[in-house]
C-alpha cells in the first residue's frame, strides 16, 4: 500500500489518498488491481486539482506495481465523490447496499 499527501502552498496538508491492491474488484477483468482505499480533499481546496493529483499519484503507484486497472468506491449518497471520480476518468460499474447483523456472543 501507499499513502500520498497533498500540501497547500503554506505547507499544511489538505488531502490524501491511500492506494492498495485487491484480488478482485467489481467491473475489473484483471487480478490483482490497484484500489483507492481512501481519498479526501479539504472542502476549501476542492476543484483546484489536488484531488486529481492525488489520484494520479495513486495510479502511477499502481502502474509501478504492474497493475493494469484501478478501482475505487464511494458511498451511495456521496455525490461529491461520484462527480470527482467521473471527472477523473472513472466509470461507474455497479451500485451496492451492504448489510450487517450482530450475532450473539459465543457461550
Helix content: 10-25%
Distance between the termini: 38 Å
Task: Give, in spatial order, the strands making up the sheet with the most strands.
Answer: 1-2-3-4
The oligomerization state is single chain
Q: Can you summarize the main beta sheet?
A: 4 strands, mixed
Instruction: Report mean pLDDT, rounded to a whole number.
Output: 95
In angstroms, what is the radius of gyration?
16 Å
* Spans of at least 5 consecutive residues with low confidence: none
Our estimate of the beta-strand percent is: 25-35%
Shape, please?
globular
| Number of H/I helices | 2
Q: Helix- and strand-based class?
A: alpha+beta
Sequence of secondary-structure elements: EEEHEH
Would you report the number of β strands? 4
Looking at this protein, list some descriptive labels.
single chain, globular, 4-stranded mixed beta sheet, 2 helices
What does this structure look like?
The protein is an alpha+beta fold and 107 residues long. It contains two helices and four strands. The protein has a four-stranded mixed β-sheet with strand order 1-2-3-4, covered by helices on one side. Strand 3 (33-41), helix 1 and strand 4 (70-71) form a beta-alpha-beta unit. The protein is globular and about 55 Å long.
Briefly summarize what is shown.
With 107 residues, the protein is of the alpha+beta class.
List the helices and strands and how they pair.
Blueprint lengths: L1 E6 L5 E10 L10 E9 L8 H15 L5 E2 L7 H9 L20
Parallel strand pairs: 3-4
Antiparallel strand pairs: 1-2, 2-3
